[in-house]
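cache lookup: miss for this entity combination. No prior model stored, computing from scratch. Input as submitted by user K.M.:
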Amino acid sequence: MATDVLRELLDRNDVAGMQRWLAERQPYEVADELGRQDPITAVLLFRLLDKDRALTVFEELDPVDQQHVLSGLRDQAFHDLVEAMDPDDRARLLGEAPAKFAQRVLAGLSLRERQMTADLLGYPEGSVGRYMSPEVVPLRQGLTASQALGSVRAKGADAETVYTLPVVDDHRRLQGVVTLRRLVLSPPDRQVTELVTADTPHAYATDDAESAARLMQQANLLALPVVDSENRVVGLLTIDDAVELIEAADTEDIARQSATTPWPGHYMAASVTQLARSRVVWLLLLIVAATLTVNVLQIFETTLAEVTALALFIPLLVGTGGNAGSQAATAAVRALAVGEVRTGDVLRVAWRECRVGLLLGAMLAVVGLLIGALLVDFPVAVTVALSVVVICSWAAVVGAAMPLLAKRIGIDPAVVSAPLVTTLVDATGLIIYFLIARAVLGV
Amino acid sequence: MATDVLRELLDRNDVAGMQRWLAERQPYEVADELGRQDPITAVLLFRLLDKDRALTVFEELDPVDQQHVLSGLRDQAFHDLVEAMDPDDRARLLGEAPAKFAQRVLAGLSLRERQMTADLLGYPEGSVGRYMSPEVVPLRQGLTASQALGSVRAKGADAETVYTLPVVDDHRRLQGVVTLRRLVLSPPDRQVTELVTADTPHAYATDDAESAARLMQQANLLALPVVDSENRVVGLLTIDDAVELIEAADTEDIARQSATTPWPGHYMAASVTQLARSRVVWLLLLIVAATLTVNVLQIFETTLAEVTALALFIPLLVGTGGNAGSQAATAAVRALAVGEVRTGDVLRVAWRECRVGLLLGAMLAVVGLLIGALLVDFPVAVTVALSVVVICSWAAVVGAAMPLLAKRIGIDPAVVSAPLVTTLVDATGLIIYFLIARAVLGV
């Protein structure tokens, strides 16, 4: 496999072999392998690349890896790479870099590139302005298709994309977009204004980047025009950046839902302490929250002492409640993320999940009854079965409602999902269990 | 909000109001709202659309919603829509439709469209062939840039995209791709072969569609040429379909990781029984697996009876082990999905997770010691603390290793992740707890 071959070459310090290996791979494959290595090895490999491939590979690296690689280069190579970067990639690199590094980058840039970068960095973190490309080819209203194509030929060399062309008035205000496809396929004397898509989606530079990216995906756009507060075109958000934004957002959501602080780097490049640090905060919070369960059990200690068999089913009930709550929470968080559910739906969702929980609980209660009756006795079995029904319904409602309520008050729903829901359901589920036990068993 | 306004219009049966509402929205917004409605309302709304917008809205719908809408149309409208669809969208619609519906669709198609659809459906489910568009503009080697543009103008009207153009030899075998950007920006007499990107990524029609989509994302491609076994160009996989593929795959993964059978439809459109059905199988499996925990506790019943305080910490330990295992499993499954980890990494990953678990366990053990000492006594606290350390390490190793081992033997890693890992760790964690208790407390 690729990594094994590379690992062998590195162990043997076979420089010629490494160069051959690098030359045979596509740029994105090289970037992928570099991302899996520790920083020093990544720099070593990068410096073995052919000069004409170095930039292409560099552009495919994550900002974190770009930083590592740049830190290992001498001034000339450093500044050549940085100058040649697209301004939006450079802004992203600097946005996540320490101050000294950022200064070194900016110091070596030409005036034009430094200005573009400073403009982009002026936008708030996480906004469209930080991800868009300012290098666009705006077309003036009143051009014909062939004049427009001439414009594209004249100015298109540096543009991030020429497939989506914003059409502007004399003050650079957005009037619509025309696609290169339409320009090419239309008769040359057709007016551009006839080819423009009416009511094109667009975003403000200060809008949230992730929402803009999901909008692009929903509307099947290759690029989204970006305007300032006076509707003047300032850039384009392209599909490749939108896709990366969505993938990063999904990875973050998934991390949060499993009680992990999102780790922005490559999984294999994380050290033991970095991984531990991304998980410890949540684990500590949850174990402290779990003290609730200890307290609940202390309150019911006499009941437990009278019917010790009740203790046998604690993990089963706590686990089932956790699973049911986790299912509901995960579905709700995902539906929120892809836009299938809105915070206003919370009552409808809670009512529906309550019925789902009852239905599921009823089916599981049969199993619970069987397990209880076979392993202990009938009264305990009834207690377990009834508890399963109530706990499942309760867990489903809490699981689905909490993410929606969280989003309503401005908290990231992924944070308030499976792990928190499970812990809450654990404690309350135990209370439900013992109250039912007291009622059924008369203790 | 949008839905509230629409809901009111529907309740009042305000047809003119609904038509106005529909006319004011972008096609993808209309499609989004239709997807949130039940099938009958969706058909009603669809039939209120202007004829010229109907197709655009229809193309934005999910295959499930497309089926609902079509089922509510009369023959003429039905066949007009179906004939106008892109062949890849039609193949996707039919792939998930019942046989009678599929027959009705195929019966009304023109010969050319029926042939294209039959070709696409001939590919295995989940393969690139089912998602690609066969409507491409291949360019013959030996053309100049301006001749190539002429070709695009002549044949490009029906093509799915003209931005990525496959270059072929006399036998239609793929030689490379050229982008429309390069054609437009180059001097007219430049040979196309000089503009071709060497070693372009491509896929076989029988390759896995999700892998091809992730490849496109990694390599920043707008379209991926697809070839048959003899390297002849048969279609292009475009970025919009790739992005949908990835979103669907991620949603499936997320569902499986929370013990849910993936539900392909819109979250809000699912009925109570449909939601329950997507969750019950796993819940039943897990509650049956949880019987293990009951058995384990029965084995140690005497120990429990001697030191009843041990029962107080069962939910806390089981919960902490579940959280630690779930963190590791979720990170591993996500890293596998985005290609940052490969199955061959399992030993490296397991060793790293073991150390992470020890480190986390040590930190949590301090908290466990405090809780135990404050609420019960010191010997029990030591038992809890030691158990936390061992359980965390064990959970982290199991959590990360199981998905990788599953993938190695061909099982979807998302299926063997958090829910299964948690249940396994519950039972083994209890064994660890009681063995430590016997050693420390001398029971």
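stored under new cache key. Strands of chain B lie at 139-140, 164-168, 174-179, 203-204, 223-227, 233-238.
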